[in-house]
Write a structure and sequence with these properties.
By secondary structure, the chain is of the alpha/beta class. It is built from 14 helices and nine strands.
Length: about 325
């Protein structure tokens, strides 16, 4: 049975997807997941038989969408990526991505990563995107806290297994495994996530405003889970080095760092109005702007309904004692008279 793979994505809605999808105003049709992130909502939508359009400005998220949302059949074999790569290719790639040395990984690890990235350039179509997704998983898995903005001195400290055990009673040996071992270990997990829902699902790598501009058809629902302004929503900082090593950085409006979040979100909503029947936005009671502020803004453009669910997030494998109220704000767009 197909199952959402191991992603390691901060802000992942995987444990909320059944609730989110069950509360959508349509049980079939086309849904645009405008800020798809780790693709957990897109994956649940695909599983329920929707036609899914997954978009994200980060290439690290786009490769996931290509691999497990748009891809319906293709799987990856070890022999597809266990290929010979010339020393010149590896040396050239190593020089290009050496900025990762003593920033995210030790020098010998960057050398291994150089060979792996070179191997990815010999793959095509969905096999390539599956492999790129596995590289992403390996890169994140080797970093403490699963984010790329952790200071190097902290990475070194937390990758010391004795220190980790003394401090947290866990050695976290997986941080010190080779990239290749992480890739091999996760291969079946990613292959098993692939299924055909009988729809032509698509993946896009655009700024949210550009995505709406490029949308040539009206969709039934536009779902948004934007990066709200907060320390733990800086996804560009968390995963941006991945995009950089593949020369795939996209210019985008960064909601998480913008003090005009509500103003920019309203501009985006206005742009979406002629392209959809419903706009559905995920939020919770811990984020800013508040649920009331967001709802009042949306009421200018149609009828608003709010759905709530109590939820506890896990932090470092422990339940967060501070319970969160997850919210879906559903806007039924006013029809033009």
């Amino acid at each position: 049975m197909s199952k959402y793979p191991k992603i390691n994505y901060i802000g992942n809605k995987n444990k909320l997807t059944d609730w989110i999808v069950s509360n959508l105003p349509y049980k079939k049709g086309i849904v645009l997941d405008l800020f798809c992130g780790g693709c957990s909502v897109s994956y649940a939508l695909k599983g329920r038989g929707y036609t899914v359009y997954s978009n994200d400005a980060l290439y690290s998220n786009y490769v996931l969408a290509k691999a497990i949302i748009e891809n319906n059949h293709t799987k990856l074999l070890k022999e597809d990526y266990n290929i010979e790569v010339s020393k010149n290719e590896i040396d050239s790639k190593y020089k290009k991505i050496s900025f990762l040395e003593n920033r995210l990984y030790f020098p010998e690890e960057v050398k291994e990563l150089s060979k792996i990235v070179c191997a990815s350039e010999n793959l095509i179509d969905y096999k390539k995107y599956l492999y790129l997704s596995l590289i992403r998983r390996a890169m994140i898995r080797k970093i403490p806290y699963s984010r790329m903005n952790v200071p190097w001195n902290q990475i070194v400290k937390l990758r010391d297994e004795d220190y980790s055990y003394m401090k947290y009673k866990r050695r976290r040996a997986y941080h010190n495994l080779p990239f290749s071992e992480h890739i091999d270990d996760n291969l079946n997990n990613y292959n098993d996530s692939i299924f055909d829902n009988g729809k032509e699902n698509r993946a896009f790598n655009c700024d949210s405003f550009e995505m709406i501009d490029n949308l040539t058809e009206k969709v039934d629902i536009i779902y948004m889970d934007p990066p709200y302004p907060a320390t733990m929503n800086k996804y560009g900082d968390f995963y941006g080095f991945y995009d950089k090593i593949f020369d795939a950085e996209v210019n985008y409006i960064n909601f998480s760092e913008n003090n005009k979040f509500l103003e920019n979100l309203e501009k985006l909503v206005i742009k979406c109005l002629p392209k959809t029947k419903y706009i559905v936005i995920s939020e919770n009671n811990k984020t800013k702007p508040t649920i009331d502020e967001l709802s009042n803004m949306l009421k200018k453009y149609g009828t608003v309904q709010v759905k709530e669910k109590r939820h506890q997030y896990k932090v470092t494998n422990k339940e967060n004692k501070n319970e969160t109220i997850e919210v879906l704000i559903i806007l039924k767009v006013n029809e033009k008279k």
